[in-house]
């Protein structure tokens, strides 16, 4: 009897702790952000003097430092709301869905959910963006890893933002 209790008790404690972990869902507020302008400067540094300012302007417009992120993940739907923008809705099964950004650019967007991580991908003819939202082991910090690629820029734009509850 003592052996059974010693095996069951740790399993119950682990289940209880995992049930208390809030996961990715909820409202997150910005705690820290990389210097996005410096990242844009670096990824466009090798461009010619005519196209470089155009690329920098466009990248700066579509890569703001978000102040808050709201995530809602269910088996049917994934919703990502950035600041006060309309939520980006994606099927929960990982399939792509059409999405139009506020400036009229159209994308295919998809969400892939894994334990402690949400990967959101956007793609169109001009390039792709991947947002990886990764939860810290203690569940208190959410880090957003951004990667933007395009045949029009010589190397990917990468930066991170960190959010707290």
Notable features of this structure?
single chain, 165 residues, alpha+beta, Lipocalin, 10-stranded antiparallel β-sheet, 10 strands, disordered N terminus
Order of strands across the main sheet: 4-3-2-1-10-9-8-7-6-5
C-alpha end-to-end distance: 43 Å
Task: Examine the coordinates and then state which fold CATH places here, giving the name of the CATH topology.
Answer: Lipocalin
Shape: globular
Mean pLDDT comes to 90
In brief:
The chain has 165 residues and is of the alpha+beta class. The chain is built from three helices and ten strands.
Structure description:
The chain contains 3 helices and 10 strands. By secondary structure, the chain is α+β, with helices and mostly antiparallel strands. The protein has one domain: Lipocalin. Helix 2 runs antiparallel to helix 3. The longest helix is centred in the N-terminal third of the chain and has 19 residues, at about 1-20.
Question: What's the structural blueprint in terms of helices and strands?
Answer:
Blueprint: H1 2-20, E1 26-33, H2 36-44, H3 51-62, E2 68-73, E3 77-82, E4 88-91, E5 97-100, E6 106-114, E7 117-124, E8 127-135, E9 141-149, E10 157-164
Antiparallel strand pairs: 1-2, 1-10, 2-3, 3-4, 5-6, 6-7, 7-8, 8-9, 9-10
Helix pairs in contact: 2-3
């Amino acid at each position: 009897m003592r052996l059974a209790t010693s095996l069951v008790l740790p399993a119950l404690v682990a289940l209880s702790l995992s049930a208390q972990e809030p996961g990715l869902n909820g409202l997150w507020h910005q705690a820290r952000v990389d210097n996005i302008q410096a990242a844009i400067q670096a990824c466009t540094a090798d461009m010619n003097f005519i196209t470089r300012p155009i690329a920098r302007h466009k990248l700066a417009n579509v890569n703001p430092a978000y102040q808050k992120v709201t995530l809602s993940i269910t088996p049917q739907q994934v919703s990502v709301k950035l600041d006060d923008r309309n939520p980006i809705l994606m099927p929960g099964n990982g399939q792509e869905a059409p999405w139009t950004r506020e400036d009229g650019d159209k994308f295919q967007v998809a969400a892939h959910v894994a334990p402690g991580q949400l990967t959101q991908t956007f793609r169109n003819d001009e390039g792709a963006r991947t947002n990886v939202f990764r939860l810290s082991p203690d569940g208190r910090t959410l880090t957003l890893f951004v990667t933007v690629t395009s045949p029009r820029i010589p190397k990917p734009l990468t930066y991170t933002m960190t959010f707290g509850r």
